[in-house]
Amino acid sequence: MKLHLTKAAGRNLFTGYGDGYVSVNDQRYTRPVIVAPEGEVEPWNPQSFEALTADDFDVLTARSPELVLLGTGSALRFPKPDVIRPLVTAGVGFEAMDTRAACRTYNILMAEGRQVIAAIFV
Hints:
By secondary structure, the protein is α/β, with parallel strands linked by helices. Helices cover 22% and strands 28% of the residues. The longest helix has 13 residues, at 99-111. The protein is globular and about 35 Å long.
């Protein structure tokens, strides 16, 4: 599916998603990624939802976001509480949702000027 949202110059927007991929600024990604409003889209280390560790969220808290959206793939899943402890300790908001919903939510929050990070499994 292609998403339609006004382009924001110099900002990262999800422009599409589908089975096994997400697109950011029309660039397709087929592995887990970290997307913030500014900067490069970066690969994210965990290869699967089941492989998530607290260290994977430490990487995100180092960026000082106000909110982290976790796109869990095609189905909504929730990580174990000890895995997201770095976010809780840092006072960072957290939402888990399927990847398609995370992409749409990220675009809305980013357009509002929020300091949001999306950590996405495709």
